């Protein structure tokens, strides 16, 4: 059903692409991924450390990892030999994708619409990744008329995108969409779970200016169900206002932890 071919110049260095070897009907299952069976899960910090110590692995780790949970990236178990073990990882991104993940089973790739023989098989990388993606900012070469340009990995926040594609997102991205109804984190933040006790914390992904809103909560949000750590008053980098908006108290450089001074319940 699927054939791996040379993409020529289309994607630059990553010159492989998958095409339909036969006509595929809308809804048809195309690929059963084995990723996750015994692949590695690594945090962003662990991957960045690996890249620092083994720079030749950079492209492989950035291209072929994907987000499975907050701050947890699935890495092919064969990463040290720079070989893929599952072709699901070779689907290229398109802003007008013809494939997505099966909503009942995040490990199956299905056709969103009928696909003609010879057509390239693509999914939208926004189905798999958030702003903390290791390829954030990639210049998109999909050539679709509606191409977004640079891939920012924040499209899961867009209501039109959700309506159209929620059912094709990975289970992780679906959980991030549902989470938006009670808590919102700025696109400039990421969750870190690689703390010594494995609790989650929120950090600046890029420069955040004093006065910027970095998070907003609604409903009953307490210290137990969000990732902003409580600290002493003089250590807090942010403050929360009467609208449950978390605001930067000073300019925050990348990696700075978003912290608050509060007592148990947020408001
Ligand atoms: C998971 S790999 C996809 C397969 C890749 N083409 C290859 O030859 O191994 C992801 C990488 O492919 C390239 N890629 C995929 N879709 C792209 C797109 N729409 N625009 C630019 N580069 C893309 C980028 O280098 C990206 O990091």
Automatic annotation (TrEMBL):
SET domain residues: 1-126
Coiled coil segments of this chain: none
InterPro entries with a match to the protein in the record: Flavunoidine_N-MTase, SET_dom, SET_dom_sf
Protein's name in the database: SET domain-containing protein
Origin organism lineage: Eukaryota, Metazoa, Spiralia, Gnathifera, Rotifera
């Amino acid at each position: 059903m699927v054939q791996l071919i040379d993409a020529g110049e289309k994607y630059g260095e990553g010159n492989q692409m998958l095409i339909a070897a036969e006509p595929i009907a809308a809804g048809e299952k195309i690929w059963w991924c084995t990723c996750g069976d015994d692949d590695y899960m690594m945090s962003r910090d662990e991957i960045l450390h690996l890249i620092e110590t083994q720079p030749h692995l950079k492209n492989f780790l950035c291209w072929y990892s994907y987000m499975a949970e907050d701050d947890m990236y699935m890495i092919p178990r064969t990463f040290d030999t720079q070989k893929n073990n599952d072709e699901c990882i070779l689907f290229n991104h398109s802003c007008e994708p013809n494939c997505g993940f099966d909503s009942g089973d995040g490990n199956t790739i299905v056709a969103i619409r009928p696909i003609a023989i010879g057509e390239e098989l693509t999914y939208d990388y926004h189905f798999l990744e958030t702003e903390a993606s290791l390829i954030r900012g990639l210049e998109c070469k999909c050539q679709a008329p509606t191409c977004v340009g640079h891939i920012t990995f924040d499209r899961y926040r867009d209501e039109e995108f959700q309506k159209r594609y929620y059912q094709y997102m990975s289970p992780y991205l679906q959980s991030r969409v549902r989470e938006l109804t009670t808590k919102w984190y700025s696109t400039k933040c990421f969750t870190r779970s690689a703390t010594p006790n494995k609790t989650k914390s929120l950090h600046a992904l890029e420069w955040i200016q004093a006065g910027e809103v970095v998070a907003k909560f609604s409903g009953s949000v307490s210290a137990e169900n969000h990732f902003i750590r409580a600290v002493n008053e003089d250590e807090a980098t942010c403050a929360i206002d009467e609208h449950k908006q978390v605001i930067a108290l000073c300019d925050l450089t990348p990696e700075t932890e978003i912290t608050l001074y509060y007592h148990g319940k947020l408001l």
